[in-house]
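Feature request disguised as a bug: please show the residue count (171) next to Centromere protein V-like isoform X3 in the output. Example input:
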Amino acid sequence: MSICANICGHDKLDMFFKKGICALGFIGHFYFTLFHCSSGCEKYEFRENMETVIHNGGCHCRRVRWQAEAPSSVTAVTCNCSNCAMRGSTAFVVPKAKFKLLGESEQHLNTYTFGTHTAKHLFCNVCGITSFYIQREHPENPDCVAIVVSCVDSGTLKHVQIRHFDGKSWE
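Example output, currently without the count:
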């Protein structure tokens, strides 16, 4: 697969993307999104210091509540791995440093893992909703939290662009 990057000096990132690793969200202080360029390759768009807002969200019974700092316009991924496909999950990522559990939320969380057991699918132990999860960690994209779009409270997400990720190939 050929990869283009529209920012200079990111050979390390370019190699990272060539390995086929999902790369939507943050690297350092860069937000980036995936899109297809006219030459047919995949291209990554980096936007340094993009304006962000505080998104609030959580589960159905509201026992799990969180805040996440991210742009009001995000690129989210819909994944076809067995877990995401069954849950209908579409999520965008934020760095763990930009994510905060609120109140007594942690006491209401259980964790489910499968396959390699590297992704941590946290869910409310009362209503069963997964409103966020800890994605697989990679050297170039460590410490990220995936936020489930449908669990963000209304009002702060202005635009969500959906991209497909072939997670089934990772199982």
